[in-house]
Specification:
The complex is a heterodimer of chains A (about 575) and B (about 350). With about 575 residues, chain A is mainly alpha-helical. Chain A has 25 helices and two strands. In chain A, strands 1-2 form a two-stranded antiparallel ribbon. Chain B has about 350 residues and is α+β, with helices and mostly antiparallel strands. Chain B has a six-stranded mixed sheet, with helices on both faces. The chains are: A mainly alpha (about 575), B alpha+beta (about 350).
Chain lengths: ~575, ~350
């Protein structure tokens, strides 16, 4: 009651009022990260070579088939991916969240594995599996059926292939949203319907589905956005097939000779559509309030499938073949065989790709060094920045906290490739010439990862009741002592988790890096992309496996730390 | 001597005065309850005293020292106060021992001294066996006692309690009310206790300050507040009362439902409209008109409920006013029957409207 009013006040940091300089400094940093690239993007989109205002850059978007076709392709891909994800993720979410399907935890972990697999790596793995000639699946098919060598079962270099591969690594978004929503529906709501005479099917149709529908819809929008803004998978699969999506088109406009005006003009629709769809998603999820009506909510009701549960498990595992089992198998085989399309024999086994990647190929070591340096720096700077902003906004220490909140969340609406274009335009000219340095990549990565880290830390702060700090103050601690003794230890696991997630987000980033790298500032993802253009799938697999191992190790570490501590599971709010 | 004085204290958020010119003197060793409904400004007042927020106007003095004024506010940690929070605010990453020892460690006391003091207070609050537990492993009542121990161990000049019992279940709450009073009698810290529960206030307080809409409605001992409510708000909020309205006749008399009523004490405001309060059980219910007609109002029974030890009536006077009357269980009047209400003048309190 009154305490809540009081908490909403600008306070003072000790004797000196530091709030103003702190806000100004943070706002300046965030401006540099966000406003500057977006402004340059808009400027370039609306000016010609001489800097005179024009709409000419947008003309080809509507008239030239070289631009209209990629737009249509992108729409087709995005809609298909959205629908496909919903079709797969909704039943799986229901099975895992509400039924007694065996090994539900394992299924969840496997879905998380596909979640953290870099999509471009998945695309490459599917090249190994389903390229028309060399693809492992097609080889098996020919061996089994005796079909002639020019016949194939799958062709991953196709529109269907692109949609399939993107959907493989996008459906976890929908799954997580749907499964969480289904878990949050208290069993009583359904019991209430049953007790009023609703049959099981009726209850499902009138209660469960409507309550889970917003999450499904929001998930579809996220899948749509992912598919629309992804660069790696279409670049790997669509370009060999001879067609473009918007992202690959934007990228190609930066190949020699660069056409920044056109690229900027192509980027703006992506940016606008993302903003609009995220608003829509926010509104859909924002109406969720009816889900939390009522006090204590019981555990969700588990539906017993009886013998059918083994069938359910089989279906889940078959689905998971596509994003996890088969691609990982392909990567492992390609990494350790001379020719991955040949049968697995002792003669075919080799460590030559490992040798090539780590000792012969000069780019790798530099790229590894760059990647780790950037990962560590981005994670440290990003979580630090997110921490300070989250403190300022969650505790409302400063008057302008809403501005900070907006800026820290805004990058979520900027597709990585668009940010890459904007940063390229912004930092290749005075006053900040950063192109060709690691700094520009660092800025890109921090900006891309900031919203997620910020949201995580903000909820971590919210979970720490301000009274915990006040209790320390009134017993004799200064503001800083209270932060050190009370707040910091309680936030530690949240900060470590945020750090880890920025780190893995950074080491797998391709869309922005592809716009910003130079010979000296290559990162692993870019090296993989380069190697793919030259058809070196073996070395890629080695690098890809390395990347996956690091990613899983860090995720596991983060999860473990997040769940540790003697006070785990208790209400930190007291 | 830790006398706490609030002088014309105002706290405004935008245009809203959450605390509106509050003046209050709390003597050394006194336990004062700020009592009022949600949003009456009592918690804000407490937080002003603690120094978590600064006043818009007015000042707070502790002993000879001005601790809060719009120009200058001493930080909370320098006020030598302790506070018990509604959420208890126990630090989940520290054991009971560490929680309790925290304030002493900040005071840089000797290690042995700290241990002895912590032991003593843990024994005092019956927590000795839990010293190595984490707060999450304790029951609500135990958590509550840790909060008490943590606040008391630093021997504050002033102790502040913010709805300390509101998270406990009913039985425990009743028990802890007496515990708070017992500890206060033992230590005699100047104490400000915020609550919305009148029973809690009645049990614990030397003095009750009833607050409403950021202002003080009435200050007095529990008995004074109950027996002589000065405003309709206090009459209704403490113990429940019937409010009778009508034109005033003179300083002692008013007209209600066609009958002249005499008030026992306090002057009726002579602005034409008078209001008086009478407790539910102070009204006597009669089946026939009494011989002496003073302060007798005819009425009709609208509803009666048998509550075991007593009966709870709702009666309606001729002008349509509904009154609640609580009587002993013996007399029973059926709904619809005519009754006469005797309102003893000494139980009728004129209210400041």
């Amino acid at each position: 009651m009154t305490a809540a009013v009081a908490a909403g006040l600008p306070g003072r940091l000790g004797r000196v009022d530091l709030s103003r300089p702190v806000v100004l400094l943070l706002a300046a940093v965030l401006c540099l990260l966000i406003v500057l690239p977006v402004s340059w993007l808009v400027y370039f989109a609306f000016t010609d070579r001489d800097g005179l205002p024009t709409f000419a850059n947008f003309a080809p978007l509507f008239s030239d088939p070289a631009y209209t076709e990629p737009m249509i392709t992108t729409l087709v891909i995005s809609v298909s991916v959205g629908l496909a994800c919903a079709a797969v993720a909704a039943p799986m979410g229901w099975l895992v969240a509400r039924t007694d399907v065996p090994f539900a935890r394992t299924i969840r972990s496997l879905i998380m594995a596909s979640f953290v697999t870099p999509p471009f790596l998945g695309a490459i793995a599917w090249e190994i599996l389903a390229a028309p000639n060399s693809g492992m699946l097609n080889q098996w098919y020919r061996e089994l059926t005796g079909a002639p060598p020019d016949q194939h079962l799958f062709n991953i270099y196709s529109l269907t292939g692109v949609i399939f591969v993107i959907a493989c690594y996008t459906f976890p978004y929908v799954f997580v949203l749907v499964a969480n929503a289904l878990e949050r529906i208290p069993g009583e709501l359904e019991d209430a319907s049953s007790i009023l005479g609703g049959r099981a099917w009726h209850t499902a149709r009138r209660i469960t589905v409507p309550l889970a529908l917003p999450a499904l819809l929001a998930g579809c929008l996220v899948a749509f956005l992912q598919a629309m803004t992804l660069f790696g998978s279409p670049a790997i699969l669509a370009l060999p097939a001879g067609f473009h999506t918007m992202t690959t088109k934007i990228w190609s406009l930066f190949q020699y000779p660069p056409k920044p005006g056109l690229a900027a003009a192509c980027s703006l629709p992506l940016l606008l559509l993302t903003v609009v769809l995220l608003r829509a998603q926010h509104m859909i999820l924002g109406r969720r309030s009816y889900q939390v009506i009522g006090g204590k909510s019981g555990a969700p009701r588990v539906i017993r499938l009886g013998p059918w549960r083994w069938l359910a498990l089989a279906v889940c595992l078959i689905v998971l073949l596509n994003p996890v089992f088969l691609p990982y198998l392909g990567l492992v085989k390609a990494a350790f065989t001379h020719v991955f399309s040949q049968p697995l024999t002792l003669k075919n086994l080799t460590l030559e790709h490992v040798d090539f990647v780590f000792f012969e190929f000069s780019s790798t070591r530099l790229a590894l060094k760059n990647t780790f340096l950037l990962g560590i720096l981005a994670a440290t700077l990003g979580s630090g920045l997110a921490l300070v902003i989250a403190y300022a906004t969650a505790r409302r220490v400063v008057a302008g906290y809403r501005v900070l909140d907006f800026f820290a969340t805004a990058p979520v609406a900027i597709p990585a490739i668009v940010l890459g274009v904007g940063l390229f335009l912004a930092y290749t000219r005075p006053p900040f010439v950063l192109y060709g340095t690691l700094s520009i990549l660092l800025i890109a990565f921090v900006t891309i990862q900031l919203p997620a880290a910020y949201q995580q830390l903000q909820s971590a702060f919210r979970a720490v009741n301000p009274e915990l700090e006040e209790a320390s103050r009134i017993l004799g601690a200064t503001r800083l002592q209270a932060l050190r003794h009370i707040t910091a230890p309680l936030l530690r696991s949240g900060v470590i988790a945020a750090w880890c997630f920025i780190f893995i987000g950074t080491i797998r980033e391709l869309s922005a890096a592809i716009m910003l790298f130079t010979a000296d500032t290559k990162v692993i993802s870019v090296v993989i992309f380069d190697l793919n253009e030259n058809g070196h799938l073996g070395p890629i697999s080695v690098l890809g496996i390395l990347m996956l191992v690091i990613t899983f190790a860090v995720v596991t570490l983060a999860n473990r730390l997040h769940g540790s501590g003697a006070w785990r599971g208790q209400r930190v709010t007291g | 001597m830790a006398r706490v004085a609030l002088r014309n204290l105002v706290k405004r958020y935008g245009d809203l005065a959450v605390v509106d010119r509050i003046s209050l003197d709390i003597d050394h060793g006194q336990l004062v309850c700020l009592l009022g409904p949600s949003g009456c400004g009592k918690t804000t007042t407490l937080r002003l005293i603690a120094g978590f927020i600064e006043p818009t106007e007015g000042e707070i003095q502790v002993g000879e020292r001005v601790v809060s004024s719009p120009a200058r506010a001493i930080e909370p940690q320098l006020r030598n106060m302790s506070m018990i929070f509604q959420s208890y605010a126990l630090w989940p990453h520290m054991t009971v021992m560490e929680n309790v020892a925290y304030g002493l460690r900040l005071r840089k006391l000797d290690r042995d001294v700290i241990r002895d003091k912590v032991r003593a207070i843990l024994n005092m609050t019956k927590l000795a066996e839990f010293e190595d537990r984490y707060p999450a492993d304790l029951s609500g009542g135990q958590q509550q006692r840790v909060a008490l121990a943590r606040a008391l161990v630093v021997e504050p000049e002033t102790l502040l309690l913010d709805e300390p019992l509101s998270n406990l279940d009913a039985n425990l709450r009743e028990e802890m009310r007496f515990e708070v009073r017992r500890l206060h009698d033992q230590y005699r810290y100047t104490t400000v206790y915020v609550t919305h529960d009148q029973a809690e206030a009645m049990t614990a307080a030397d003095r009750i300050v009833v607050m409403n809409k950021g202002r003080i409605e009435q200050t007095g001992t529990p008995e004074e507040i109950y027996r002589r409510p000065r405003s309709e708000f206090v009459a209704r909020f403490i113990g429940g009362a019937n409010i009778l309205r009508g034109p005033s006749l003179d300083a002692r008399h008013m007209r209600f439902s066609g009958v002249v009523l005499r008030c026992g004490d306090a002057e009726i405001a002579l602005n034409g409209h008078a209001a008086l309060s009478i407790r539910h059980h102070d009204i006597r219910l009669l089946g026939a008109p009494p011989s002496s007609a003073e302060n007798v109002v005819p009425a009709k029974v609208a509803r009666q409920v048998f509550l075991g030890g007593m009966r709870d009536y709702l009666v309606e006077t001729h002008d349509g006013t509904q009154l609640r009357v609580v009587t002993s269980a013996e007399h029973s009047f059926a709904p619809g029957s005519a009754v006469w209400l005797h309102l003893p003048p000494e139980s009728c309190r004129a209210l400041v409207s």
